[in-house]
Description:
- The chain has helices at residues 16-27, 40-53, 65-70, 86-95, 110-122, 138-147, 168-173, 185-189, 191-201, 316-330, 336-356, and strands at 6-11, 30-36, 61-63, 76-79, 99-102, 127-129, 155-163, 209-218, 225-234, 240-246, 252-259, 263-266, 277-283, 286-290, 293-297, 300-306, 362-363.
- It is an alpha/beta fold.
- It is globular, with a radius of gyration of 21 Å.
Amino acid sequence: MTAPVCRWGILGAANIARKNWKAIRLSGNGIVTAVASRDPARAKEWIAANQAECPFAVEPAACDYDALLKRSDVDAVYVPLPTGIRPDWVVKAANAGKHVLCEKPCGLHTADVKRMIDACAANKVQFMDGVMFMHSKRLPLLRAALDDGETVGALRRITTQFSFAAGDDFLKNNIRVSDTMEPLGALGDLGWYNVRFALWVMNFQMPVKVSGRMLAEYGVGSTPVPLEFSGELFWPNGVSSSFYCSFNTELQQWAHVSGTKGSISVRDFVLPYFGCESEFVSDRPVFNVKGTRYHWESHPKRHAVTEYSDGAPDAQETNMVRTFGDLVLSRILDTHWSQIALKTQTVLDACLHSARAGGAVIGI
Protein backbone atom coordinates (compact mmCIF):
# COMPACT_ATOMS: atom_id res chain seq x y z
CA MET A 1 0.00 0.00 0.00
CA THR A 2 1.39 3.40 -0.98
CA ALA A 3 2.05 5.76 1.93
CA PRO A 4 0.04 9.00 1.84
CA VAL A 5 1.83 12.13 0.64
CA CYS A 6 1.20 15.85 0.89
CA ARG A 7 0.36 17.13 -2.58
CA TRP A 8 1.86 20.57 -3.10
CA GLY A 9 0.99 23.43 -5.39
CA ILE A 10 3.51 26.25 -5.84
CA LEU A 11 1.75 29.58 -6.17
CA GLY A 12 4.28 31.66 -8.09
CA ALA A 13 7.38 30.68 -10.05
CA ALA A 14 9.89 32.64 -7.94
CA ASN A 15 13.58 31.79 -7.71
CA ILE A 16 13.38 30.83 -4.02
CA ALA A 17 10.69 28.30 -4.95
CA ARG A 18 13.33 26.24 -6.78
CA LYS A 19 14.93 25.44 -3.45
CA ASN A 20 11.63 24.31 -1.96
CA TRP A 21 10.79 22.31 -5.10
CA LYS A 22 13.88 20.25 -4.33
CA ALA A 23 13.05 20.15 -0.62
CA ILE A 24 9.62 18.71 -1.41
CA ARG A 25 11.25 16.16 -3.73
CA LEU A 26 13.61 15.07 -0.91
CA SER A 27 11.10 15.24 1.93
CA GLY A 28 9.80 11.70 1.59
CA ASN A 29 6.24 12.80 2.30
CA GLY A 30 5.47 15.27 -0.49
CA ILE A 31 5.14 15.76 -4.23
CA VAL A 32 4.53 18.83 -6.37
CA THR A 33 1.42 18.39 -8.49
CA ALA A 34 0.96 21.90 -9.91
CA VAL A 35 2.77 25.21 -10.36
CA ALA A 36 1.01 28.49 -11.07
CA SER A 37 2.14 31.71 -12.71
CA ARG A 38 0.32 34.70 -14.13
CA ASP A 39 1.40 33.23 -17.47
CA PRO A 40 0.93 29.42 -17.52
CA ALA A 41 3.53 29.24 -20.31
CA ARG A 42 6.12 30.63 -17.90
CA ALA A 43 5.05 28.09 -15.30
CA LYS A 44 5.55 25.33 -17.87
CA GLU A 45 9.09 26.55 -18.63
CA TRP A 46 9.86 26.78 -14.92
CA ILE A 47 8.59 23.26 -14.32
CA ALA A 48 10.67 21.90 -17.22
CA ALA A 49 13.85 23.50 -15.84
CA ASN A 50 13.31 21.98 -12.40
CA GLN A 51 12.26 18.59 -13.77
CA ALA A 52 15.53 18.45 -15.70
CA GLU A 53 17.54 18.80 -12.49
CA CYS A 54 15.29 17.28 -9.83
CA PRO A 55 12.37 15.38 -11.39
CA PHE A 56 9.13 14.11 -9.94
CA ALA A 57 7.77 10.85 -11.36
CA VAL A 58 4.77 12.70 -12.75
CA GLU A 59 5.46 16.15 -14.17
CA PRO A 60 3.47 18.82 -12.30
CA ALA A 61 0.77 20.69 -14.18
CA ALA A 62 1.16 24.34 -15.23
CA CYS A 63 -1.76 26.68 -14.61
CA ASP A 64 -2.75 30.11 -13.37
CA TYR A 65 -3.28 31.02 -9.71
CA ASP A 66 -7.05 30.55 -9.57
CA ALA A 67 -6.91 27.24 -11.42
CA LEU A 68 -4.33 25.89 -8.99
CA LEU A 69 -6.53 26.67 -5.99
CA LYS A 70 -9.42 24.79 -7.60
CA ARG A 71 -7.42 21.61 -8.14
CA SER A 72 -8.48 18.57 -6.12
CA ASP A 73 -4.95 17.14 -6.26
CA VAL A 74 -3.44 20.04 -4.23
CA ASP A 75 -3.50 19.75 -0.44
CA ALA A 76 -1.07 22.54 0.41
CA VAL A 77 0.35 25.59 -1.31
CA TYR A 78 3.72 27.22 -0.99
CA VAL A 79 3.28 30.97 -1.58
CA PRO A 80 6.42 32.87 -2.66
CA LEU A 81 4.43 35.69 -4.28
CA PRO A 82 5.51 39.30 -3.62
CA THR A 83 4.42 40.65 -0.24
CA GLY A 84 2.34 43.33 -1.93
CA ILE A 85 -0.11 40.71 -3.25
CA ARG A 86 0.63 37.74 -0.99
CA PRO A 87 -1.98 38.29 1.77
CA ASP A 88 -4.95 38.17 -0.59
CA TRP A 89 -3.74 34.95 -2.19
CA VAL A 90 -3.08 33.34 1.19
CA VAL A 91 -6.66 34.11 2.21
CA LYS A 92 -7.94 32.73 -1.12
CA ALA A 93 -5.90 29.58 -0.62
CA ALA A 94 -7.22 29.09 2.91
CA ASN A 95 -10.79 29.64 1.72
CA ALA A 96 -10.15 26.98 -0.92
CA GLY A 97 -9.18 24.55 1.85
CA LYS A 98 -5.45 24.57 1.12
CA HIS A 99 -2.81 24.50 3.84
CA VAL A 100 -0.38 27.43 3.52
CA LEU A 101 3.40 27.67 3.72
CA CYS A 102 4.00 31.38 3.29
CA GLU A 103 7.19 33.23 2.39
CA LYS A 104 8.31 36.13 4.56
CA PRO A 105 7.60 38.83 5.41
CA CYS A 106 4.12 37.36 5.65
CA GLY A 107 2.32 40.67 5.18
CA LEU A 108 2.66 44.40 4.83
CA HIS A 109 1.60 44.86 8.46
CA THR A 110 0.20 42.99 11.43
CA ALA A 111 -3.42 43.35 10.30
CA ASP A 112 -2.54 41.41 7.13
CA VAL A 113 -1.10 38.52 9.12
CA LYS A 114 -4.07 38.42 11.48
CA ARG A 115 -6.40 38.23 8.47
CA MET A 116 -4.37 35.38 6.97
CA ILE A 117 -4.22 33.44 10.23
CA ASP A 118 -7.93 33.93 10.87
CA ALA A 119 -8.75 32.61 7.38
CA CYS A 120 -6.58 29.54 7.95
CA ALA A 121 -8.15 28.92 11.36
CA ALA A 122 -11.69 29.29 9.99
CA ASN A 123 -10.95 26.75 7.26
CA LYS A 124 -9.01 24.38 9.56
CA VAL A 125 -5.80 24.55 7.53
CA GLN A 126 -2.20 24.86 8.71
CA PHE A 127 -0.28 28.13 8.41
CA MET A 128 3.50 28.42 8.63
CA ASP A 129 6.04 31.00 7.48
CA GLY A 130 9.03 29.90 5.44
CA VAL A 131 11.83 30.55 7.95
CA MET A 132 14.06 27.59 7.18
CA PHE A 133 16.52 27.98 10.05
CA MET A 134 13.70 27.25 12.50
CA HIS A 135 13.91 23.66 11.29
CA SER A 136 17.67 23.20 11.54
CA LYS A 137 18.98 20.44 13.81
CA ARG A 138 21.37 23.07 15.18
CA LEU A 139 18.62 24.88 17.10
CA PRO A 140 17.99 22.19 19.75
CA LEU A 141 21.75 22.07 20.40
CA LEU A 142 21.85 25.85 20.67
CA ARG A 143 18.84 25.85 23.00
CA ALA A 144 20.53 23.34 25.29
CA ALA A 145 23.61 25.56 25.52
CA LEU A 146 21.53 28.65 26.23
CA ASP A 147 19.57 26.91 28.96
CA ASP A 148 22.33 25.00 30.77
CA GLY A 149 23.11 27.91 33.09
CA GLU A 150 26.86 27.71 32.46
CA THR A 151 27.67 28.32 28.79
CA VAL A 152 26.12 31.80 28.76
CA GLY A 153 24.83 32.20 32.30
CA ALA A 154 22.03 34.73 32.68
CA LEU A 155 21.15 36.10 29.26
CA ARG A 156 21.83 39.81 28.74
CA ARG A 157 22.28 40.67 25.07
CA ILE A 158 21.40 39.38 21.56
CA THR A 159 22.97 40.92 18.46
CA THR A 160 22.46 39.94 14.81
CA GLN A 161 23.36 41.10 11.32
CA PHE A 162 21.93 39.93 8.02
CA SER A 163 23.11 41.82 4.96
CA PHE A 164 24.28 41.56 1.40
CA ALA A 165 25.68 44.15 -0.99
CA ALA A 166 23.17 44.52 -3.81
CA GLY A 167 24.54 45.57 -7.18
CA ASP A 168 23.25 48.18 -9.58
CA ASP A 169 21.03 45.73 -11.43
CA PHE A 170 19.35 44.71 -8.16
CA LEU A 171 18.68 48.33 -7.23
CA LYS A 172 17.19 49.05 -10.64
CA ASN A 173 15.17 45.91 -11.28
CA ASN A 174 14.63 43.72 -8.23
CA ILE A 175 11.16 43.71 -6.69
CA ARG A 176 12.71 44.03 -3.20
CA VAL A 177 13.17 47.75 -3.82
CA SER A 178 9.64 48.22 -5.20
CA ASP A 179 7.18 50.07 -2.97
CA THR A 180 4.26 48.13 -4.44
CA MET A 181 5.81 44.65 -4.49
CA GLU A 182 8.07 44.68 -1.39
CA PRO A 183 7.45 47.91 0.54
CA LEU A 184 9.31 46.63 3.62
CA GLY A 185 12.54 46.33 1.62
CA ALA A 186 15.53 45.04 3.58
CA LEU A 187 13.56 45.15 6.84
CA GLY A 188 11.07 42.61 5.53
CA ASP A 189 13.42 40.52 3.43
CA LEU A 190 16.29 40.28 5.94
CA GLY A 191 15.11 41.84 9.20
CA TRP A 192 12.42 39.16 9.55
CA TYR A 193 15.23 36.68 10.28
CA ASN A 194 16.96 39.01 12.74
CA VAL A 195 13.78 39.53 14.73
CA ARG A 196 12.81 35.86 14.57
CA PHE A 197 16.17 34.76 15.96
CA ALA A 198 15.91 37.17 18.90
CA LEU A 199 12.37 36.06 19.64
CA TRP A 200 13.44 32.42 19.47
CA VAL A 201 16.28 33.02 21.93
CA MET A 202 13.74 34.63 24.26
CA ASN A 203 11.33 31.68 23.91
CA PHE A 204 8.99 34.02 22.05
CA GLN A 205 8.43 36.34 24.97
CA MET A 206 7.60 39.66 23.35
CA PRO A 207 9.73 42.77 23.95
CA VAL A 208 7.92 45.56 25.73
CA LYS A 209 9.44 48.38 23.69
CA VAL A 210 11.51 48.89 20.54
CA SER A 211 13.28 51.56 18.56
CA GLY A 212 14.21 51.61 14.90
CA ARG A 213 16.52 53.64 12.68
CA MET A 214 16.21 54.08 8.93
CA LEU A 215 19.85 54.26 7.91
CA ALA A 216 19.18 54.36 4.17
CA GLU A 217 16.15 54.28 1.87
CA TYR A 218 15.82 53.64 -1.82
CA GLY A 219 13.13 52.66 -4.26
CA VAL A 220 12.08 52.40 -7.88
CA GLY A 221 8.52 53.56 -7.13
CA SER A 222 7.05 56.70 -5.67
CA THR A 223 7.96 55.78 -2.08
CA PRO A 224 11.42 54.62 -0.97
CA VAL A 225 11.77 51.33 0.90
CA PRO A 226 14.18 50.46 3.75
CA LEU A 227 17.60 49.75 2.25
CA GLU A 228 19.55 49.73 5.51
CA PHE A 229 17.94 49.47 8.93
CA SER A 230 18.90 48.99 12.58
CA GLY A 231 16.70 48.21 15.53
CA GLU A 232 16.75 47.69 19.29
CA LEU A 233 14.40 45.45 21.27
CA PHE A 234 13.93 45.62 25.05
CA TRP A 235 12.48 42.99 27.40
CA PRO A 236 11.19 43.59 30.94
CA ASN A 237 13.86 41.34 32.47
CA GLY A 238 16.64 43.64 31.23
CA VAL A 239 17.62 41.64 28.14
CA SER A 240 18.14 43.73 25.02
CA SER A 241 18.74 42.94 21.37
CA SER A 242 20.11 44.91 18.45
CA PHE A 243 19.88 44.02 14.78
CA TYR A 244 21.17 45.38 11.50
CA CYS A 245 19.87 44.46 8.07
CA SER A 246 21.01 45.93 4.79
CA PHE A 247 21.22 45.66 1.02
CA ASN A 248 24.36 47.87 1.23
CA THR A 249 26.79 45.73 3.23
CA GLU A 250 28.62 42.57 2.14
CA LEU A 251 27.02 39.20 2.85
CA GLN A 252 26.93 38.43 6.58
CA GLN A 253 24.50 36.29 8.58
CA TRP A 254 25.81 36.26 12.13
CA ALA A 255 24.32 36.19 15.60
CA HIS A 256 25.96 36.72 18.99
CA VAL A 257 24.35 35.95 22.33
CA SER A 258 25.97 37.25 25.55
CA GLY A 259 25.37 36.57 29.21
CA THR A 260 26.89 36.84 32.66
CA LYS A 261 29.24 33.87 32.19
CA GLY A 262 30.00 33.62 28.48
CA SER A 263 28.82 34.07 24.93
CA ILE A 264 27.79 32.15 21.83
CA SER A 265 28.65 33.08 18.23
CA VAL A 266 26.78 31.74 15.21
CA ARG A 267 28.47 32.82 11.98
CA ASP A 268 25.72 31.66 9.64
CA PHE A 269 22.40 31.60 11.50
CA VAL A 270 20.18 31.95 8.41
CA LEU A 271 21.82 29.70 5.82
CA PRO A 272 24.56 27.40 7.14
CA TYR A 273 27.90 27.56 5.40
CA PHE A 274 28.19 24.89 2.72
CA GLY A 275 29.18 21.55 4.18
CA CYS A 276 27.98 18.61 6.25
CA GLU A 277 27.81 20.29 9.67
CA SER A 278 25.97 23.15 11.32
CA GLU A 279 27.95 24.65 14.19
CA PHE A 280 28.35 27.44 16.69
CA VAL A 281 31.10 28.43 19.10
CA SER A 282 30.77 29.26 22.79
CA ASP A 283 33.44 31.10 24.74
CA ARG A 284 34.12 31.86 28.40
CA PRO A 285 37.15 34.17 28.37
CA VAL A 286 39.35 34.66 31.41
CA PHE A 287 41.13 37.93 32.16
CA ASN A 288 44.22 37.45 34.32
CA VAL A 289 46.06 40.42 35.78
CA LYS A 290 49.27 39.91 37.73
CA GLY A 291 51.82 42.65 38.04
CA THR A 292 52.69 43.86 34.56
CA ARG A 293 50.93 40.93 32.87
CA TYR A 294 47.47 41.54 31.46
CA HIS A 295 46.34 38.32 29.84
CA TRP A 296 42.94 37.92 28.23
CA GLU A 297 42.50 34.22 27.45
CA SER A 298 39.92 32.80 25.07
CA HIS A 299 38.45 29.39 25.87
CA PRO A 300 36.32 28.56 22.82
CA LYS A 301 34.28 25.38 22.44
CA ARG A 302 32.84 24.23 19.13
CA HIS A 303 29.36 22.68 19.07
CA ALA A 304 28.18 20.93 15.88
CA VAL A 305 25.54 18.64 14.44
CA THR A 306 25.74 16.59 11.26
CA GLU A 307 23.47 18.40 8.81
CA TYR A 308 24.03 19.36 5.21
CA SER A 309 23.64 23.04 4.46
CA ASP A 310 21.18 22.71 1.57
CA GLY A 311 19.82 20.40 -1.11
CA ALA A 312 19.96 17.28 1.05
CA PRO A 313 17.40 15.08 2.85
CA ASP A 314 18.55 16.49 6.22
CA ALA A 315 18.92 20.13 5.16
CA GLN A 316 16.85 22.69 7.01
CA GLU A 317 14.55 23.50 4.09
CA THR A 318 13.81 19.80 3.65
CA ASN A 319 13.08 19.49 7.35
CA MET A 320 10.70 22.45 7.03
CA VAL A 321 8.56 21.00 4.24
CA ARG A 322 8.69 17.54 5.85
CA THR A 323 7.42 18.97 9.13
CA PHE A 324 4.71 20.88 7.30
CA GLY A 325 3.73 17.79 5.31
CA ASP A 326 3.50 15.73 8.50
CA LEU A 327 1.11 18.30 9.98
CA VAL A 328 -1.06 18.24 6.85
CA LEU A 329 -1.17 14.44 6.80
CA SER A 330 -1.86 14.19 10.53
CA ARG A 331 -4.79 16.61 10.27
CA ILE A 332 -3.60 18.10 13.57
CA LEU A 333 -3.06 21.86 13.35
CA ASP A 334 -0.16 23.45 15.22
CA THR A 335 -0.97 27.10 15.99
CA HIS A 336 2.55 27.73 17.31
CA TRP A 337 3.70 28.49 13.76
CA SER A 338 1.02 31.08 13.07
CA GLN A 339 1.52 32.77 16.42
CA ILE A 340 5.28 33.22 16.02
CA ALA A 341 4.72 34.64 12.53
CA LEU A 342 2.30 37.16 14.02
CA LYS A 343 4.77 38.08 16.77
CA THR A 344 7.56 38.59 14.23
CA GLN A 345 5.38 40.85 12.09
CA THR A 346 4.27 42.81 15.16
CA VAL A 347 7.86 43.57 16.17
CA LEU A 348 8.77 44.53 12.59
CA ASP A 349 5.80 46.88 12.42
CA ALA A 350 6.79 48.55 15.69
CA CYS A 351 10.41 49.00 14.58
CA LEU A 352 9.31 50.60 11.31
CA HIS A 353 6.85 52.84 13.14
CA SER A 354 9.66 53.96 15.44
CA ALA A 355 11.97 54.67 12.49
CA ARG A 356 9.28 56.75 10.79
CA ALA A 357 9.01 58.69 14.07
CA GLY A 358 12.72 59.51 14.10
CA GLY A 359 13.81 56.54 16.20
CA ALA A 360 11.55 57.17 19.15
CA VAL A 361 11.25 54.33 21.67
CA ILE A 362 7.73 52.94 21.46
CA GLY A 363 5.86 50.29 23.41
CA ILE A 364 4.41 47.14 21.94
